[in-house]
Design goal:
About 80% of the residues lie in helices and about 0% in strands. By secondary structure, the protein is mostly helical. It contains 2 helices and no strands. Helix 1 (about 5-20) runs antiparallel to helix 2 (about 25-55).
C-alpha cells in the first residue's frame, strides 16, 4: 500500500531525473520506499489514536 504521489514528491523526482545524479531506478525505488513508509506510519498513527480513544471510553 502506498500513499498517492504528492506534488512535492513529483517535483522532487522531476528535478532528480533532470540532474541525473543517480540512475532513475534508484530514485523510483526510494520514492516507493518512502511512500510505503509514510502509509505505514499513517496506519500506525490512526491505530494508536483509536486505541487511546477506546481506553478513554
Amino acid at each position: 500500500m502506498l500513499i498517492l504521489l504528492t506534488a512535492g514528491e513529483a517535483r522532487r523526482l522531476f528535478c532528480l531525473y533532470t540532474r541525473a545524479a543517480r540512475p532513475p531506478a534508484f530514485h523510483e525505488h526510494w520514492s516507493r520506499w518512502r511512500r510505503r513508509h509514510q502509509a505505514t506510519a499513517r496506519l500506525c498513527h490512526y491505530a494508536r489514536r483509536t486505541e487511546n480513544l477506546i481506553l478513554l471510553l
